[in-house]
Design goal:
The structure is a single chain. The protein is an alpha+beta fold and 554 residues long. Helix 11 runs antiparallel to helix 14. The protein is built from 15 helices and 12 strands. A hairpin with a 5-residue loop joins strand 11 and strand 12.
Length: 554
């Protein structure tokens, strides 16, 4: 189906300008044609024979043609056309006997031409031109001997002058009046539409004096009021007594600063809530927009209550986990202690099977204790109860201890573990246990995802006052979807067997410990290309400053 193409109509103002130009062109052409026909008739009848006798009519025709050509030009050109009409009609009247001649009525032609342009602004110029033409004609008739047309032509010229001007001026004034009436109706319709929109919009719009007196009111008034009843009242009367001082202060701020906003309780409803926006229009006028914000305030209160409840629940969860971790640690320490005694055969020999059982019990207990410690640390961090125990130490010592602890796990997994540490001391002022835990968690995570024959490299380096700990592996890598989740508590990546080997707290603790030190953690990885975890913490300084900081903290 062929789509319907809609033609865009020009704006109303452009259409009126076009219609006005067409009328002006038609009016001028009609004037020129009428004068030309009358002149031709007089020549045919033998009443006008010489060139000087035809000159006044020729000026009338020329004025009409010139006006038709320039009718669509700008305002200055149209004003020049009216001036040209004044000069041409003055000359035509003087050439036909002056104020007492048959064409004396043509002194009104400039006014008619001005009205033909349908521009009220040109009427004063046209009237001035008509008066000037009449005055010059009258003075010339009184002081000078002016040429007169043939006696036989005078009655016909008088008819041409009077009828032509009457018809031209009357037509132009009628059309101009219709144009002005149409514009007034359009303005009235526009004003009525705007007032209807203002009266039915959901807010209360007010025009105020700086002191608060209401000049105009539009929109939704308070219950029991009408908008017009608010006029000449003080805006402070609409506010609750306890909030009036704040409202008056907002009015003064709007006067001085140009704008102000405030929320207050309305006088008619102690449980209500209004929002007031003020803008300065002038030194003595302010526009105000009042909105009923009861629903928004209720929603904000609900959201705040939900936030407080969620924080309380989260804090309760963290306290529960912390308490449970302590409760679990006590029997677990006993289990690990007794199993350690059994596997070392401190009280005598036992069978190999029981020794294997004791070893498995001890390893499982150690894994469970590690998990409990992670849960305890995370719960303290989430509850804002974790406090860093900062001290001065060589960062290499903590990282070396972590490497030693993970060496056995790497050997059993068949993974090459390599540490790259600087030869010189790296004095740091940080939580030693947290730094060591960061290294342990990163190494444990890398070993878990690196297959046999792979390699894990830990690099410790300084960048200004920032400690950089980089752990890179040649493992399976991390998928993009998993990469976005890692670092949040209990989030894990990999297949089910790899997820079962951890709790999902390792990287989240690394990130939390780094942030507590004012640092950050970032992960770079792709599937099949291994992973690199970088931890940066601004904890390095020279040895003397570390000693001073340690002394101040101790």
């Amino acid at each position: 189906m062929t789509p319907i193409r809609r033609t865009r109509r020009p704006p109303l103002k452009s259409r009126r300008r076009l219609v006005g130009s067409r009328f002006a062109v038609g009016w001028h052409l009609a004037w020129a044609a009428g004068v030309a026909l009358c002149g031709a008739g007089l020549v045919a009848a033998g009443h006008l024979t010489s060139g000087p006798d035809l000159a006044p009519l020729a000026l009338g025709v020329a004025s009409g043609l010139a006006g038709a050509l320039l009718a669509g030009a700008g305002e200055r050109i149209r004003a020049a056309v009216v001036v040209a009409w004044t000069l041409a009609m003055t000359a035509a009247v003087l050439m036909s006997g002056g104020a007492l001649g048959p064409l004396a009525a043509w002194c009104l032609a400039p006014l008619a031409a001005a009205a033909a342009f349908r521009k009220p602004d040109l009427l004063p110029l046209g009237a001035a031109g008509a008066l000037a033409a009449a005055a010059i004609s009258a003075l010339s008739s009184a002081l000078l001997s002016l040429p007169a047309p043939p006696a036989a032509a005078e009655p016909w010229l008088s008819l041409v002058g009077l009828a032509g001007v009457a018809l031209a001026l009357g037509t132009a004034l009628v059309v101009l009046h219709a144009e002005l009436t149409q514009e007034r109706r359009a303005r009235d319709d526009l004003e009525t539409g705007l007032l209807e929109v203002l009266d039915n919009q959901p807010q209360l719009l007010l025009d105020l004096y700086p002191g608060g007196r209401i000049l105009e009111a539009f929109g939704q008034p308070p219950p029991g009021w009408r908008a017009r009843d608010l006029v000449d009242r003080n805006f402070g009367d609409l506010a609750n007594a306890d909030d009036r001082a704040a409202v008056e202060d907002a009015l003064q701020r709007a006067v001085s600063a140009g704008s102000a906003e405030i929320a207050f309780r309305p006088a008619h409803d102690a449980d209500g809530w209004w929002e007031l926006s003020l803008r300065r229009m002038s030194k003595i006028r302010i526009v105000a927009a009042v909105r009923d914000a009861r629903g928004q305030r209720a929603r904000e209160a609900d959201l705040e209550s939900a936030r407080v409840a969620a924080e309380q629940q989260n804090a309760g969860k963290s306290r529960f986990l912390a308490n449970m971790s302590h409760e679990l640690r006590t029997p677990l320490n006993a289990i690990m202690g007794f199993s350690d005694i059994m596997r070392q055969r401190l009280f005598g020999p036992i069978s190999e099977r029981y020794a294997d059982y004791a070893e498995l019990i001890h390893e499982s207990g150690a894994h469970l204790l590690e998990l409990i410690n992670d849960v305890l640390d995370m719960s303290k961090i989430e509850a804002d109860r974790f406090e860093l125990a900062r001290e001065a130490f060589d960062a290499r010592d903590a990282i070396s201890a972590a490497l030693r602890l993970m060496r056995g796990q790497a050997d059993r997994a068949g993974v090459s573990l390599r540490g790259v540490l600087p030869p010189d001391a790296m004095p740091a002022y940080a939580d030693r246990r947290a730094v060591k835990q960061i290294a342990l968690n990163l190494l444990s995570n890398a070993l878990k995802f690196t297959p046999r024959g792979g390699a894990v490299t830990l690099t410790l380096q300084a960048a200004g006052d920032t400690l950089e700990l980089i752990v890179a592996d040649t493992g399976v890598g991390i998928a993009p979807d998993d990469l976005e989740r890692l670092g949040r508590p209990f989030e894990q990546a990999g297949d089910p067997s790899q997820k079962a080997a951890g709790s999902g707290l390792g990287l989240s603790l690394v990130r939390a410990f780094a942030q507590l030190h004012g640092g950050e953690m970032s992960i770079e990885s792709a599937l099949g290309e291994g992973a690199t975890v970088i931890v940066r913490m601004p904890v390095l300084s020279d040895g003397e400053m570390v000693v001073q900081a340690a002394a101040a903290g101790g």
